Amino acid sequence: MSVDQAITRFAPSPTGRLHLGHAAAAWFAADRGRFLLRIEDIDPSRCRPEWTTGIFEDLAWLGLSWEEPVRIQSAHPGDYQSALRRLQDLGVLYPCFCTRKEIEEEVRRAGAAPHGIEGPVYPGTCRALGPAERADRLAAGGASWRLDAAKAAGLTGPLSWRDARWGGAAVDPGRLGDVVVARKDIGTSYHLAVTVDDALQGVTLVTRGEDLREATHVQRLLQALLELPEPAYHHHALLLDRHGKRFAKRDRSCTLQSLREAGVTAAEIRERVRLAE
Prior knowledge:
Helix content: 25-40%
Radius of gyration: 20 Å
Mean pLDDT: 91
Low-confidence stretches: none
Order of helices and strands: EHEHEHEHEEHEHEEEHEHEHH
Shape: globular
Number of strands: 12
């Protein structure tokens, strides 16, 4: 796929000001095709409108431009609910009533603690609940919804994806366990929202950090279940500080706002943050 054919996106969460790592990732995506912007603000407990405004400000200062309209996740709950209902109709979801603490205790009791990108891999506690108990517990209060990875794989068959940096990869449906596709408090999740959004925005090349490469196992599964297009991928290296650590929003010294206020130019930042292919 040539650069002029690709449709790329940069999809930050407004949980703080953008930092040097964000600048590198945004330029990386923008250099590879038609550049879209998405604001991933599905979690109201962590996201703030002023940080969304800051994202626009920082990207404009970097000299980036993007196609309108910008997709704001919180404005599209119906899209995620439609996808959720389709997955429920396929019979690949089950309600989960476990708290994070209960999951950690169950993993500890089992004598193993496998971890995915979202913490301990869920041991499947609620998957074994009978229909009557599920109905009673749902009537008593809401639940999160998890993807039954084994059932999903049974419907899709073998899957794979192609990464420009890492080559071909086979999907391992159980790699991250039975992930949450709809949290009780927000009605969706990162995995479901990003999969739906990429399809609706027509994204053909997903560029993002290598720390999110494992998420592709889940998202390819969701794409196949929902009969959505499969994009190409490029999981680039992460930008690290002088101590070999990832940049973080809590470190004000590396935010684009603080660098701008200190007199650093966008051109100087561009030279500093070029990512390896």
